[in-house]
Specification:
It catalyses: oxaloacetate + acetyl-CoA + H2O = citrate + CoA + H(+). This is Citrate synthase. The protein is mainly α. The chain has a domain of about 110 residues: Cytochrome P450-Terp, domain 2 (Cytochrome p450-Terp, domain 2, Orthogonal Bundle), CATH 1.10.230. Helices cover about 55% and strands about 5% of the residues. β2 and β3 form a beta hairpin. The radius of gyration is 22 Å and the shape is globular. The model has no long low-confidence stretch (mean pLDDT about 95). The structure holds carboxymethyl coenzyme *A (CMC).
């Protein structure tokens, strides 16, 4: 073989060519298919962005309606999946439940594994886009001990998610347009981020020609970790801990800088962004606006702002180019929308779903080879076996 270069964490290794997302970490630029994240967050709807990411172009009205109809037609989840859900303890982390149920969907939709034609691929894609929001809502309902809901065909994609998550029996659920818009924006901001940990996982799992649903389930597992999507939960837990500590941000700053202490300032730093994370900028502004619109005063937001200010003035963070990332302020918004803390990463997964699908589809259409990194062996050289009684 040739020379193997060692690059732990793939800091400088490209794994594929991609036409989906452009990211300039020095300048803080993010584009989906050539459209700026700022413009999409402001003007587009989540489902349009999903279509754009997956198929490469913004849909016209007719294409969008058909896409939405196809998704709605596929939004029923087999009754037996409820039995699997039932078997989990109520205390189960929603991300584990979501990953398991997504994987389990394959058993109930065996044809989803067949993606030999683009038409078959499309069917699997609309199936998962239809069923995933149901699973997202079910993980919440399970956790809360509430009856499970199904979607309504008369609602928009994001409205439907909210309705399934929050409507209670014998009670009319009135959708608040501020809440719908806020969630739509958050999902757009999370929809893709090129070859991050979970997306690379989806591509690698899918490169073995494992089915779409299980490849996505692998991505959900990768997203769960606190260094990746799990950071949004960790941020709020950190801010709550600071609040309990009487707002002592200095103490947490010192812990984050202490190399003997494994604690990191959650929601800070990014592998690629060495300037600011453009998503964090949009989310910070949105958090202010949404809390204001909903008439909520959350002391956690003030703590977050104070912490950000301190970090941005501290040479440790400045020297290492550590800025707030997408997860720093998103939790403040999720809280305002009434979403429990351990559901935050599930909401991230809902947003990232079209990105994972788009990247998986690109990988399959490009006929990429199986993902199989090399290594540099540093273990023992050949030695003779010694029977157990002689060891
Ligand atoms: N708090 C304190 N120090 C930090 C932090 C932080 N949040 N992030 C990085 N550093 C330090 C790190 O200790 C290292 O210092 P030194 O050079 O003295 O050893 C330097 O900055 C470079 O960090 P790194 O760990 O080599 O950088 P990385 O690219 O491997 O890690 C990261 C990127 C996002 C995992 C990391 O910044 C981190 O752990 N942040 C906190 C968790 C977080 O917010 N994750 C969300 C990421 S964005 C969205 C997403 O993926 O979901």
């Amino acid at each position: 073989g040739g020379i193997i270069t060692l690059d732990p964490g793939f800091k400088n290794t490209g794994s594929c060519e991609s036409a989906i997302t452009f990211l300039d970490g020095e300048k803080g630029i993010l584009h989906y298919r050539g459209y700026s994240i700022e413009e999409l967050a402001e003007k587009a709807e989540f489902l349009e962005v999903a279509y754009l990411l997956i198929f490469g172009e913004l849909p016209n009205k007719e294409q969008l309606d058909k896409f939405h109809d196809d998704i709605k037609h596929q939004s029923v989840v087999d009754e037996d999946v409820k039995k699997i859900l039932d078997a989990f303890p109520k205390s189960a982390h929603p991300m584990g439940v979501l990953s398991s149920l997504t994987s389990a969907l394959t058993a109930f939709n065996p044809s989803s594994v067949d993606v030999r034609s683009e038409e078959a691929m499309y069917k699997s894609i609309v199936k998962i886009l239809g069923k995933f929001p149901v699973l997202v809502s079910w993980t919440l309902r399970k956790k809360m001990g509430q009856p499970l809901n199904y979607g309504s065909t008369s609602l928009g994609y994001v409205e439907n998610v909210l309705q399934m998550m929050f409507s209670q029996p014998n009670e009319e659920y009135v959708l608040n347009p501020i809440v719908v818009e806020a969630l739509d924006k958050l999902l757009i901001l999370h929809a893709d981020h090129e070859q991050n940990c979970s997306t690379s996982t989806v591509r690698i799992a899918g490169s073995s020609h494992a089915g779409l649903f299980v490849s996505l389930a692998s991505g959900i597992s990768a997203l769960w970790g606190p260094l990746h999507g799990g950071a949004n939960q960790a941020v709020i837990e950190m801010l709550e801990a600071i609040q309990k500590d009487g707002g002592d941000t200095k103490k947490y700053m010192a812990k984050a800088k202490d190399k003997e202490d494994p604690f990191r300032l959650m929601g800070f730093g990014h592998r690629v962004y060495k300037n600011f994370d453009p998503r964090a900028k949009i989310i910070k502004k949105a958090a202010d606006a949404i809390l204001n619109d909903l008439g909520i005063e959350d002391p956690i937001l003030d703590i977050a702002k104070g912490l950000e200010k301190e970090a941005l003035e501290d040479s440790y963070f400045v020297d290492r180019k550590l800025y707030p990332n997408v997860d720093f302020y998103s939790g403040v918004i999720y809280r305002a929308l009434g979403i429990p803390t351990d559901m935050f990463t599930v909401m991230f997964a809902l947003g990232r779903l079209p990105g994972w699908i788009a990247q998986w589809r690109e990988m399959r259409l490009n006929k990429e080879p199986i993902g199989r990194p090399r290594q540099i062996y540093i273990g023992k050289t050949l030695r003779p076996f010694i029977p157990v009684e002689e060891r």
